[in-house]
């Protein structure tokens, strides 16, 4: 073929291919979901591009996906008449992994099957999953609207390199032919394919068709040779899932749809599907994933919802509709409030976007509140995304109280590193006369738990929150109170236990302070400028001394963060 070249895969792709083939064997049917998902995306993209330019359809505006197989040859073909790819796009999309952080992510993989399968799942395997079942893959594609001579053929055995060549191609869109491995021939089977299509693509709006061969029969019921007629039969439900009424969508369908939208292959923890009419019209389907994507903390990690305007796909990862601290939420937003030719730039200026963002934020927080009723599921959520949610009070002042109610902490009540106690739990256990919520921030759980500052609290049976995440001091600097109870750092300022301490105790403390005045003076002289002040304290019961920060001083954790940032 003309202009043929063989290129090497990017190192990351090679690594991914190797690991995927070895660790996803027991999940190998997912290749079909990935290919259908890509084909559906390609149809969505063409429909969007054609809004401005009808000619892109090239006279064929009935978007569809076709799946064929050849049992004898051992092949499965997935074809779409979507947007297609140019030669450059083929090389880019099917030769590299563009997401940032990929290299670091792949380093964590160890070759340990189960662990790697979990990790790769969180990465999203995509097109390359073809090589779990195929020992050779051929892609033929042409970008919609381009000249027939601008088709491309891509071929690879998944072993480090691929070949691209020019191709004369009548139809636009993409066709992917998998040459199945010997041990994966079972997929070249009509029944198997149909059931997989139903399982994975009922929720996709584009029809997925498979050929049905019918043979005419003579009067005696015998098949007439040579009379085979092939008709295309739509196998999936082919309605966008979020458009359907809630009551008609099963949990399995919601889960399958999640996997398409989120490029994840484990189940979501929960979801919330809402159709809103009236002043602000939109349909949203939001999901809480069961695990974190590898780029959760990457600055440019993918986040946001899939945006549709009146059922027409507009863009992936529309990040303007949810705050940063809810970046783990995945899903779909479909609205009539925006125009079909809205762009990322226009989204930033549209006041409607702010309104929808406010509404979706409430939906997401409500969904978490509901999830919290299921302790086990919520703990999974918290362990996975808790430290992201902790960014909330700083970012979203208006929803501070709601977010606070969703937070979970370690406390002296359980003395466990597991963050599983809510502020409401804490408040319900407050001592009579206790007006404040006490907490301590330290570098790790053990440091928090064994801090001498806790001695008096333990003695009196007053609960203290044990904060030990990197972000905790930042969090506490944005939370002033919960249900009217002020937060107090036990390591800062004067210790005032308020009503919990009787008058007599207070008197005794004052007397001790007087009696020890000369000792205090000597210690102060010895320490000199290293300290601001030396005081007698009743914080301690066993330890002889501790360091205390002035009330409004930046804490140790924050100081270290600021220092690290060069401030
Ligand atoms: P993802 O779908 O998460 O982007 P994939 O590995 O599944 O990752 O696909 C990589 C890219 O290849 C897609 O983003 C898309 O640009 C391109 N691609 C894959 N399949 C098709 C297709 N059928 N039609 C057009 N482009 C495709
Ligand atoms: Mg994909």
Automatic annotation (TrEMBL):
What keywords does the record list, in alphabetical order?
Answer: ATP-binding, Chaperone, Cytoplasm, Nucleotide-binding, Stress response
Using the UniProt annotation, give all residue ranges assigned to the region (A): 1-344
In residue numbers, the region (B) covers: 345-560
* UniProt xrefs under SUPFAM superfamilies: ATPase domain of HSP90 chaperone/DNA topoisomerase II/histidine kinase, HSP90 C-terminal domain, Ribosomal protein S5 domain 2-like
Where in or outside the cell is it found?
Cytoplasm
Q: Which InterPro entries match?
A: HATPase_C_sf, HATPase_dom, Heat_shock_protein_90_CS, HSP90_C, Hsp90_fam, Hsp90_N, Ribosomal_Su5_D2-typ_SF
Q: Which residues form the Histidine kinase/HSP90-like ATPase domain?
A: 27-184
Q: Which purpose does this protein serve, as stated in its record?
A: Molecular chaperone. Has ATPase activity.
Subunit composition? Homodimer.
The family classification in the record reads:
Belongs to the heat shock protein 90 family.
* Protein known as: Chaperone protein HtpG
Higher taxonomy: Bacteria, Pseudomonadati, Pseudomonadota, Gammaproteobacteria, Oceanospirillales
